[in-house]
Specification:
The complex is a heterotrimer of chains A (307), B (423) and C (370). Chain A is mainly alpha-helical. Chain A has eleven helices and four strands, in the order H-H-H-H-E-E-E-H-H-H-H-E-H-H-H. Chain A has one domain: ABC transporter involved in vitamin B12 uptake, BtuC. Chain B has 423 residues and is mainly α. Chain B has two domains: 67 residues; 313 residues, ABC transporter involved in vitamin B12 uptake, BtuC. In chain B, a hairpin with a 2-residue loop joins strand 1 and strand 2. The radius of gyration of chain B is 26 Å and the shape is globular. The chains are: A mainly alpha (307), B mainly alpha (423), C alpha/beta (370).
Chain lengths: 307, 423, 370
């Protein structure tokens, strides 16, 4: 019983972090699916989302607003707007001019953008860790007193539900809406879609904006869940999320979800049963193994080599 | 001026405000135990507004401005010169290179110690970039974990000297060979992956090696690193004030000159210079050998190359191994220069910087790589007053370079024959 | 604001350095090497603020042997590679006394160069025992060692008769060093250590660690490392209903931990050098800092002040600006400084440097525990 509770607690920890990885991974996977480049700066966009949310929350607090739903909504909207604008601008400035060139060129441009954005926030807001208020506190506990008790906090529930809503909405959007259909068309064949009258530039911009908005959601949620932000934390999270995207099969949205959850759970199980020191080794090792035996990821479509 | 243009310009200006005002205009500050928010000073806010106006005007007159810039470039392009005869060009190039090397040989004797030390660092980066150039520039394999092989070289020397007392000169080939072995072993399974997957897997390997170095405390000292790495000796002569190892003599006593710390710095610089020149020459040879041609062939068109009977695995592995070999070289020199190494020196950013040098220099081009290594290492030092901004500028420069001059400072020139124009 | 102050400071120091090069005869240059930029720049700020104040005050009192002290500042970003470059630049600039560096991983490679070049170094912040273990003649410090702080914490925890103790560290030189010292002390006392584990510095998610601590049913957790990670661990421990008492070294004892951990910081135990700024004899100095708008309570402000003062006193006592003479003078005498009476042993460590256990409160204040 004890062991089971411990296992479930680690599972919950892993699923929580995994679902936020999935939210960030969407940005990588959609961009890769459409223009075939790794958007290294995506982690920074997530970090900027978290900072904007914190600025909004602190601003509202200094104005004397205390009603929680209002604070959350305002913070969420601000973060999404700023992050999306950032995503749009990054695409315009750093990626569109180099699109279609040798595939190393956009990648270097993206790494440069990532370094630039990190230092932009570092200069504007300082390099220290800034505390993020815990707005949603409390939770359920399971198990008897005096022994190991499993806890499921309201914050974790919020993260699950929000991720689920975002994923469902995005899937519906891609499957049903006109823009979604255009997205799928562009990802299958950019040139052909262009010939058929789809404004591909617009669709690519839309992809960046959607990815950035979801990253902003993750930024707010994770800021509240973990408790602090700093200019460097986007990079690590971005790397993990990218791993999740590759794990699940890059280009596939359900794949990003699956990859995120697997990565999150394997990390928390490693720190739970082995040692936290080797958490990253296990997640990168897992990535390498999957790529070696199934190079297109778990849910990715096998690519046919055309001659 | 079309209304459409105006609308677009307005939109761009608005976006500029959105991405800069919230982050720059409000500062989060810790006041005691509370986080408070303060508005930025007027100059910052004016700066933000100014940026928005500039973006607005630029977008509004974008066509005109771009037209002008286009005219300028076409003007310069108009004065197209008759390309120099290939053999003459090659001759001039080799003379210039020899001149630079000779200059580099004598230069440190007139320079300050700090400058020589910095130059040694530049040479280490040149070695690294030349090695990575084989992998990325010539073979077209995107390696984001190159720093791992650099770490292998550095740690090999550090560990050998700590446990077995091996000197620099013995450790140098061992470190390089061990790094090459790592390249071979790691390369074997991953090289069948496609471009971007290869990139992310090598990134993973780089991180794993760093984490292992950090966690394997018994062997590597973990985060404490390894100190007391000896300096290179010259035929058994040491450059320190006191002789550290028995059987060695000290340089200044042998020659009966006063002790000066500069001897050591210059000696290290000269070693790095010789090794960098060696690296450049060896790789130059490789480029002209069948295997070098095979790298480029595979990079340009894998299917065509395979249909001509090239073994994909063998060709890629050779590039990967040779690249790793020179990283091991550079690692050994780095360990010796620092005297102390820890996993902190081998993070992903280091891989990114080396890659940036290769790309800025012009992929595949050796002179370009040398120039870029100098630029990337020295510019931040010169801009010390802007030290806060140097990484910001570095990032922006990477982006701008890719947008405006993706072929690099000195694009690679293939050896080719120009056809005479027929009148 | 921050940046403009820093730029001004850099400009001033450069111009001072340039002036120093002009008439070096009547001046003694003191190099101050530490991080002005980078992730631990806030500790660097403490170092520069303390050292600048000391130079200013000593000059106001007529300097040393009639000569003025001139501060020359260098930024090493706490990066070992840049520290070596900085050290070489220092040699180049003819500086013969250094206050620095801050991070142990920078101090160590730089000290090799200083020792070889005959430059005297006093580090106000590096606590790694290895730095003074190598028998160097010119290396001193004005701070205690990890191996001193660890036993204080270990003995304190042991005195509370804990059932099970967990030790966590951030796998960095500083954190792991202290954590190991605490573990060894606790082992000697026969206390059961349930866990000894590393985390990754810069990580944000510690929920698995908290669950593991809960499962291990520990009543004390010692954390070796800095405040950003401990702040998050405290907060996530509170969310995960872990009730254990946490303890950490001086690297966690600053107010930033309150902004991160909030209420969860209440009751945290911290080993700190005694707060020198609370001492009665230092009140005049504290006023001087406050009138400049600077905060003297950071752990490295007064140690840096003391480092400059020791160099000055050493020069005065040796009546020579030769670093070897000054080193001999420092080893041979007892000096009154804001951090107490300083006497050096052969290795260059202070013969006694006290650490005190404080209880930290959620409003950022602290009270000593006996």
């Amino acid at each position: 019983m004890q062991d089971l509770l411990y296992f479930s607690q680690q599972l919950i920890n892993g699923l929580t972090i995994g679902s936020t990885y999935a939210l960030i991974a969407i940005g990588y996977t959609m961009v890769y699916g459409i223009i075939g480049m790794i958007n290294f700066a995506h982690g920074e966009i997530y970090m900027i989302g978290a900072y904007t949310a914190l600025i909004a929350i602190t601003g509202l607090a200094s104005l004397g607003v205390v009603w929680l739903p209002l604070i959350l909504i305002v913070a969420l909207v601000c973060a999404m707007i700023v992050s999306s604008s950032m995503g749009w601008a990054v695409e315009r400035v750093a990626y569109r001019p180099v699109r279609g060139r040798h595939r190393l060129i956009p990648l270097i441009s993206a790494i440069g953008m990532s370094i630039f954005l990190q230092n932009y926030v570092h200069l504007a807001q300082g390099s220290r860790n800034i505390g993020f208020p815990a707005l949603i506190e409390g939770g359920f506990t399971f198990g008897s007193d005096g022994a190991f008790q499993m806890s499921l906090s309201y914050m974790q529930i919020t993260i699950f539900i929000t991720t689920l809503i975002c994923m469902t909405a995005l899937s519906l959007f891609i499957a049903r809406s006109r823009t979604g259909r255009a997205c799928r068309a562009v990802s299958q064949d950019l040139g052909m879609a262009n010939l058929l009258g789809i404004d591909t530039n617009r669709i690519i911009s839309a992809t960046f904006v959607i990815g950035a908005a979801l990253a902003a959601v993750a930024g707010l949620l994770l800021g509240m869940y973990y408790g602090s932000v700093d200019p460097l934390f986007g990079f690590i999270a971005g790397l993990k999320a990218f791993t999740a995207a590759v794990l699940g099969g890059i280009g596939s949205i359900p794949g990003a979800m699956l990859g995120g959850l697997i990565l999150g759970v394997s990390e928390s199980m490693t720190s739970g049963y082995l040692s936290g020191e080797y958490k990253d080794v296990v997640s990168f090792g897992l990535l390498i193994l999957i790529l070696l035996f199934k190079p297109t990821g778990l849910l990715g479509k096998p690519e046919v080599e055309k001659i | 001026m079309a209304a459409h243009n105006f609308k677009h310009a307005l939109f761009c200006a608005f976006i500029t405000l959105l991405i800069s005002y919230p982050i720059l205009g409000f500062n989060l500050e810790a006041q005691g135990i509370n986080i408070t928010i303060t508005g930025a000073d007027t100059t910052t806010i004016l700066g933000v507004l100014l940026a928005a106006v500039v973006v607005f005007l630029f977008q509004l007159f974008r066509d005109q401005i771009m037209g002008r810039v286009g005219d300028l470039t076409s003007l310069t392009a108009g004065k197209h010169k008759e390309p120099m005869a290939e053999n003459r060009r090659a001759k001039i190039e080799s003379w210039v290179l020899t001149g630079i090397v000779i200059l580099a040989l004598f230069w440190p004797f007139f320079m300050s110690r700090g400058a020589v030390d910095l130059a040694t660092l530049v040479l280490i980066y040149i070695m690294l970039a030349l090695g990575l150039n084989v992998v990325v520039g010539l073979a077209g394999l995107l390696d984001l974990g190159y720093v791992a092989f650099y770490a292998v070289g550095a740690y090999t020397f550090a560990l050998l000297s700590q446990y077995l007392g091996v000197s620099f000169w013995f450790a140098l080939p061992i470190g390089a060979l061990l790094a090459a072995t790592f390249g071979l072993v790691l390369g074997f399974p991953v090289l069948r992956l496609r471009g971007d997957y290869l990139a992310i897997v090598t990134l993973g390997f780089g991180e794993i090696i760093r984490i292992l170095l950090n966690n394997w405390t018994n062997l590597t000292g973990g985060p404490n690193g390894i100190g007391g790495i000896p300096d290179p000796t010259l035929f058994g002569m040491e450059f320190g004030r006191r002789v550290k190892e028995e059987g060695n003599t000290s340089f200044h006593e042998t020659f009966g000159i006063a002790y000066s710390g500069e001897h050591k710095v210059i000696f290290l610089y000269l070693i790095a210079l010789v090794l960098a020149v060696f690296t450049a020459l060896v790789i130059r040879r490789f480029m002209r050998m069948p295997v070098g041609r095979a790298w480029e062939a595979l990079r340009e068109d894998e299917i065509a190359a395979r249909s001509l009977g090239l073994s994909r695995t063998a060709v890629k592995l050779s590039a990967f191994t040779i690249g790793a070999f020179f990283a091991g070289f550079a690692g050994t020199v780095f360990a010796s220069k620092q005297g102390f190494i820890s996993p902190e020196s081998f993070v992903f950013l280091e891989s990114a910087i080396i890659l940036a040098i290769v790309v800025l220099g012009g992929m595949g081009s050796q002179i370009g790589v040398v120039l870029a290594a100098i630029a990337v290492t020295i510019l931040p030092e010169l801009a010390r007053e802007f030290s806060e901004y140097r990484m910001l500028i570095f990032g922006a420069a990477m982006v701008l370079m890719m947008v405006w001059r993706p072929q690099g400072l000195m694009p690679m020139r293939r050896i080719h024959i120009e056809l005479k124009k027929q009148e | 604001m921050r940046t403009s102050v820093k730029k001004l400071a850099t400009a001033v120091s450069t111009s001072i350095a340039l002036m120093g090069a002009g008439h070096a005869a009547a001046e003694i240059q003191i190099g101050i090497a530490g991080p002005m930029t980078g992730p631990v720049a806030q500790y660097g700020d403490m170092q520069f603020s303390g050292a600048r104040m000391a130079i200013q005050q000593i000059n106001a009192n007529g300097g040393v042997m009639g000569e003025e002290l001139v501060g020359v500042e260098y930024d090493d970003v706490c990066d070992p590679k840049q520290a070596v470059t900085v050290a070489n630049n220092l040699v180049n600039d003819g500086v013969r006394f250094v206050v620095g560096h801050l991070c142990s991983s920078s101090t160590q490679p730089a000290s090799d160069i200083y020792e070889d070049e005959g430059i005297l170094m006093v580090t106000p912040a590096s606590t790694s025992p290895e730095i003074t273990e190598r028998g160097y003649e010119l290396v001193f410090r004005t701070i205690g060692l990890d191996s001193m702080q660890g036993p204080v914490a270990g003995n304190y925890i042991a005195s509370l008769n804990p059932e099970r103790v967990a030790i966590v560290h951030d796998k960095q030189q500083y954190g792991e060093g202290i954590a190991t010292a605490v573990r060894d002390t606790l082992k000697d006392k026969g206390v059961e250590i349930a866990m000894f584990e590393g985390i990754t510095a810069g990580d944000k998610d510690f929920s698995s660690l908290v669950t593991k601590l809960k499962q291990a049913d520990v009543d004390y957790v010692y954390y070796g490392g800095y405040h950003p990670e401990l702040g998050l661990i405290l907060r996530q421990a509170r969310q995960g209903d872990l009730d254990a008492v946490f303890m950490g070294p001086e690297g966690v004892g600053n107010k930033d931990i309150n902004t991160i951990a909030g209420e969860a910081a209440e009751g945290l135990l911290v080993t700190l050098p005694p707060s020198f700024d609370q001492k009665a004899e230092n009140q005049k100095l504290v006023k001087a800092f406050e009138s400049k708008g600077e905060d003297p309570s950071g752990p490295f402000v007064l140690t840096s002040y003391a480092a400059v003062q020791l160099i000055a006193d050493g020069i005065a006592k040796a009546e020579s600006t030769d670093p070897f003479d000054v080193a001999a003078a420092l080893r041979g005498g007892a000096y009154e400084t804001p951090i107490g009476t300083v006497e050096y042993d052969k290795a260059g460590d202070m013969k006694s440097f006290e650490f005190v256990v404080y209880e930290w409160h959620s409003d950022g204040s602290k009270t000593p525990v006996n």
